[in-house]
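4-diphosphocytidyl-2C-methyl-D-erythritol kinase
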Amino acid sequence: MIFGSLPLGEAEGALLVHSLKLGKTAFRKGRKLSPEDLKTLRAAGIERVTVVRFEPGDVTEDEAAQRVAAAICGENLEVAAPFTGRSNLIARTHGLLVVDRARLDRLNAVDEAVTLATLPAFDVVAPGDMVATVKIIPFAVPGEVIERCLWTLAGDPILQVAALRPHAVTLIQTRLPGLKESVIDKTIAIMNERLAGLGSGPAQDRRCAHDERALTAEIEAALKGGAEMVLIAGASAITDRRDVLPAAIGRAGGTVDHFGMPVDPGNLMLLAHVGARPVLGLPGCVRSPKLNGFDWVLQRLMADLPVTRQDIMAMGTGGLLKEIPTRPQPRAGSESLAPRAPKVAAIILAAGRSSRMGAANKLMAELDGKPLVAHAADAALAARLERVVVVTGHEAERVRQALGPRKLEILHNPDYASGIASSLATGLAALKDSAIDGVLVLLGDMPRVAPAQLGRLISAFNPVEGRAICVPTFNGKRGNPVLWGKRFFEPMAHLKGDVGARHLIAENAELVAEVAMPDDAVLTDVDTPQALDALRRGESQSGGDATA
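Tokens:
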């Protein structure tokens, strides 16, 4: 690939390296310069441009990304279409990401032009999650570089998703005087939540005295009853390989593989087997739903991945999960410090009387064959949000019918005439007790907002890093929808009248992230018949700054 600054007379057919803004005309990076483009540049007073030209044997960035991604892609993954030299790998099932770290490192060492980034190994992923991305840095790379990459990747794919499957699990809990039965009840409930999150049914609940013989009998009964995995939560923590739990496992014919793990919380975990079936002595922290070392082991076992003594001993890097002064526990009501991507829901406000539209309800007006409110709903559903809540008011039944069989939570706000604040409060009330980290507030009369734009906001949202309010912008002007962190739910729920939450943006400027959008859809609402007509003609009608 040839890179350099050329006079316009020599630049025809070359690719522009840097974007150029020429009044109302914009030439983006990567544009192939035509004779007409060169005339426009001359008229703007530009004499030279920085461009690239391909040489024989060069592979374009998109083709290179596609070829490398295809070679990496293993079981339960699919390769997304490349774009600007990037090809993403997407999970097709609920499972754990398995990474051949040594070969990944060798690939990234082939040439600086080819890069592969992945989620951490053994991360739990859901269908549709992006687990890795291949990025080609320049516009093209020599073919021999790609051949070296493919040679490095020869053999089994270096990425795959090990699918989670339901297992027959038994949880045995031992009793000692002073241990409340309510604690035991809570422990089985928390364990069943863990299992449900991994796609499995509840565990069989067994209880006995904290005694070697009694526990041995329970282990044998669980295995005889068909348990594929036995989990043991002792009334007292394991302190030695000769303690009650490991001794009982040995009496039941089992072998202790490893005691202890370099993960905190979770140090006092015991890994054993009776035949081919895993038997785990659990650390005391399993009585809490917070992430601990046992979770890492359970996840692998539920995906039928072997867990060995060496695997346990290799978990120290990243194993400090316990809250420490430099990573304090969050204040009550603040966003979680969970290592997973934040969970985001959406509220679609569809309750207004649309008085500026005259007699018609603007949400029922059709654009491209469907009502405006349906455009907003479809964008939210396609964005793979945790939940999508629609708040109705004026002509509620018509709005409900317009949304048809879509999988939405539709709530009615009887006080809709008081203004937008009551509708916002109605939607927030539905999310109050759910495990949601943030909410996108969409307006039902903004039909051009697309799933990709919602995705940009969600990607930018990170309350832990100070991005607790994400506001879309176009050409520096703020629009809608806005993504709000959970800490703002309460003040938003107490707003009154026809007033949105704009003042919260001004009052929390340090937590605001402006997210640039490629077009003015985030500024375009439909308040009048003229605005609707313009939208149907493909003309832009920009609304005001963010208010929701």
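The CA atoms of residues 323 and 329 lie 6 Å apart.
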